[in-house]
Design brief:
The complex is a heterodimer of chains A (about 325) and B (about 325).
Chain A lengths: L3 E15 L8 E15 L3 E5 L6 H8 L7 E6 L2 E2 L5 H10 E4 L13 H12 L5 H14 L16 H13 L5 E5 L7 H18 L2 E5 L3 H7 L2 E6 L2 E7 H6 L4 H9 L41 H5 L5 E2 L5 E2 L4 H4 L7
Parallel strand pairs in A: 3-8, 3-9, 6-7, 7-8
Antiparallel strand pairs in A: 1-2, 1-4, 4-5, 9-10, 10-12, 11-12
Chain B lengths: L4 E12 L2 E13 L4 E5 L6 H8 L7 E9 L2 E2 L5 H10 L1 E4 L13 H13 L3 H14 L5 H4 L9 H13 L5 E5 L7 H18 L2 E6 L2 H7 L2 E6 L2 E7 H6 L4 H9 L49 E4 L2 E3 L2 H4 L2
Parallel strand pairs in B: 3-8, 3-9, 6-7, 7-8
Antiparallel strand pairs in B: 1-2, 1-4, 4-5, 9-10, 10-12, 11-12
Helix pairs in contact in B: 3-4, 4-6
The chains are: A alpha/beta (about 325), B alpha/beta (about 325).
The complex binds adenosine-5'-triphosphate, iron/sulfur cluster (2 copies) and magnesium ion.
The site of one iron/sulfur cluster has 13 residues of chain B, from helix 11.
């Protein structure tokens, strides 16, 4: 079970940005991801959760080298991908695939759906004939629940859910080992979300592919992921098994996230929610000192202001970055 | 007691190259003072257009028929000027994208004050004091400083608060919110839902909340109206509908939402297929192609809204039939 497919160590992603206000053109560094480490295991889904701008997507892209990390290592089959040139990366790209949030805009509007799905074969398996490619694409379409008859249509004739099936087919056609799904159902209707979630689960069961599933929706992550990684302002807050995380989250931020999930239960009106976290997420250009969560944390003490909490190991291999987790976590919190 | 808003047989059509498209069909509902009504449906089911039609805000190629009575007076085809007055004053709307509702080049405090001067004829000084008070009510931190901020300087959650402040300024009787929290993070969403809930309790404002999130509806709405392909398919108290949905679409929708309590090891029940193309609706039930309970009349005859409980109606042949 716990064969590591991908080892991520101390990964950081920085962007150069210009100022904030209208006239401010000073160049600054936005630290989107800061020293995140985790391993991805064979056949598992790692859920990555957090709020807007917390660095979820940057993390996913950096793992795939779609953005180049500022620091850290991504070890794939014994090699660190971070140092490789684009050409050297090519064999790895075949095994590491991605599905994005916006189904339509991630598909080339001038290619037919059949061509889009077969495109990776053309690049990575040039020895295949056109007929073989078409046949494989048709097979893949069936597996993701699309009628192969639709292969000659263009993406704009497809609904959002169908486009997402096309993206998934394109990502899966090379039989990759790892797939990063970045908010793959957020743009879809509720009734279509469940279809796509089930499809991803089925594909994983059949192929044993390891998945990084990025989402802001905790209910969906609970359903998709074996382990959960929580980020806030670019940093890892908590990482642990689904069972442990949802039953007894250790980190005050995880507890607040879980308490804020609107459950479809009229017996639990808004007035009975736990008090929501105060304030907004601070600007990632200007993160707080010490613990980045301290400006919204009701448990913050002076040490939280002066010192950044290290990632500590709790029981069951659970990892948490909070000075006071021993006092705060682990007693069936989020109720 | 007569309803605050009485919408009867509302129909919204758009003239397009392919002829007329009917986006909202025979929509009837009532909104009572002080209640919160949720409107739920898939993308394109007509949630937004029905509300825009009520407020006279349809795109140029759109037109509405039927009747929308506000306190007994038909406002659907009111002259522009009267409608503008009513809209700023008695009926207000908040959109998903808060930026689109604010003037980018004007300080947010001034925008609020301006509206009070225009609609309520207050003096500048008094309007300014009132605007500041409103920023406090919607819990903008450091309202004195924020009064002078431009919209782009605020976070998404903060902008949504300003929009709500703007909408609540003249103490409207009806606040229509179109996906007010969809663009927000879950912890910020919880703040905004709290805020709306507080407004409802303390000011008695009636709220219509358009959303696709069944969790948000459960948290905030007294009643819910489910739309499918431009029509209301089920209306009732939120508790009744969640406990025993009568329309197969509602039932399927409720089942397909992952929850924190469900069993994550079994597949989610789904509704197969996808919503129909409004330009190609047949004669029968629009849900027939996705429904597991289809029988004789379903593909031929449009099911009408029928009473299934006290204050609970649904449009499905099964409700009457076998
Ligand atoms: N100006 C227009 N011309 C033609 N059709 C339009 C126009 N505006 C809206 N429509 C159509 O009206 C129908 C209903 O749209 P509406 O915006 O009310 O849906 P909605 O339920 O609010 O969806 P969403 O959840 O995506 O916001 C859709 O099919 C839409 O494409
Ligand atoms: S380290 Fe301090 S501020 Fe950060 S989460 Fe823990 S208690 Fe809160
Ligand atoms: S009318 Fe028929 S097709 Fe429509 S929802 Fe009811 S049973 Fe299903
Ligand atoms: Mg809408």
């Amino acid at each position: 079970m716990s064969d590591t497919v991908l080892q991520v160590e101390d990964l950081s992603v920085h962007y150069d940005v210009r100022g904030g206000g209208l006239l401010n053109t000073r160049k600054r560094t936005l630290k989107a991801v800061q020293q995140v480490s985790f391993e991805l295991r064979a056949g598992e889904t790692l859920g990555v959760v957090g709020e807007t701008g917390c660095g979820k997507s940057s993390l996913g892209r950096a793992v795939l080298q779609l953005v180049r990390p500022a620091n850290g290592r991504v070890v794939w089959q014994g090699r660190d991908l971070c140092g490789l040139s684009d050409r050297e990366l090519r064999p790895a790209r075949k095994d590491l695939q991605v599905v994005f949030q916006d189904p339509l805009s991630s598909l080339n509007p001038r290619m037919t759906v059949g061509e889009i799905i077969a495109e990776p074969l053309r690049i990575h398996q040039p020895e295949l004939s056109a007929a073989e490619r078409t046949e494989k694409a048709a097979e893949m379409m069936t597996r993701v629940g699309l009628l192969p008859d639709l292969a000659r249509r263009y993406p704009n004739e497809f609904s959002g859910g169908q486009c997402q099936r096309v993206s998934i087919a394109r990502a899966m056609i090379l039989e990759p080992r790892v797939i990063v799904c970045d908010e793959p159902v957020s743009a879809l209707d509720v009734s279509i979300q469940a279809q796509i979630c089930n499809l991803l689960r089925t594909l994983q069961r059949d192929t044993g592919i390891a998945m990084i599933f990025i989402s802001h929706d905790l209910s969906i992550v609970r359903y998709m992921a074996h382990r959960v990684l929580v980020m806030y302002l670019g940093r890892l807050m908590e990482l642990g098994s689904r069972e442990r995380f949802f039953a007894r989250p250790c980190h005050p931020y995880s507890q607040a996230l879980l308490a804020a999930v609107p459950e479809p239960d009229p017996g639990r009106p808004v007035s009975q929610y736990a008090d929501p976290l105060p304030g907004d997420v601070p600007s990632p250009l200007d993160p707080p000192s010490g613990c980045v969560f301290r400006t919204r944390c009701e448990h913050a003490t002076p040490v939280c202001v002066s010192q950044q909490p290290a990632l500590e190991l709790a029981e069951d291999g659970h990892e948490v970055a909070c000075h006071h987790w021993r006092r705060l976590g682990g007693h069936g919190a989020a109720t | 007691m007569s309803a605050l808003i009485d919408c009867e047989h509302l129909e919204v059509r758009f003239r397009t190259e392919h002829g007329d498209v009917c986006a909202v069909n025979d929509l009837s509902f009532q909104l009572q003072a002080g209640e919160c009504l949720g409107i739920v449906g898939e993308s394109g089911s007509g949630k937004s257009q029905s509300m825009l039609a009520m407020l006279g805000l349809l795109a140029d190629n759109g037109y509405a028929t039927g009747a929308v009575r506000y306190r007994g007076r038909d406002i659907l085809n009111l002259p522009r000027r009267e409608l503008d007055q009513l809209r700023g004053d008695r009926l207000a709307m908040v959109f998903q994208d808060a930026l689109s509702g604010l003037t980018p080049t004007m300080r947010i405090g001034d925008q609020l004050a301006e509206s009070l001067v225009r609609h309520r004829g207050l003096s500048r000084a008094y309007a300014k004091a009132k605007a500041l008070e409103m920023l406090e009510i919607v819990k903008i931190p450091a309202p004195d400083t924020r009064y002078c901020a431009y919209p782009f300087e605020l976070s998404g959650g903060m902008r949504q608060r300003v929009m709500i402040a703007m909408a609540m300024l003249c103490q409207p009787e009806v606040l229509i919110c179109d996906e007010p929290t969809t663009a927000l993070d879950v912890t910020v969403q919880a703040q905004i839902l709290r805020l709306l809930d507080g407004l409802k309790r303390h000011t008695g404002t009636a709220i219509i909340l358009i959303t696709h999130d069944l969790g948000v509806v459960a948290g905030l709405c007294d009643r819910v109206l489910i739309m499918y392909a431009g029509r209301a398919v089920e209306v009732g108290n939120t508790a009744d509908i969640y406990a025993s949905p009568q329309h197969p679409y509602t039932a399927g929708l409720l089942r397909s939402v992952p929850t924190l309590g469900g069993d994550p090891d079994t597949d989610l029940p789904t509704i197969p297929g996808q919503p129909p193309d409004l330009e190609r609706l047949g004669a029968g039930c629009a849900f027939a192609a996705r429904c597991g309970h289809t029988f004789g009349p379903c593909t031929e005859q449009l099911p009408e809204l029928t009473r299934v409980g006290p204050a609970h109606i649904a449009a499905c042949h099964r409700v009457n039939g076998p």
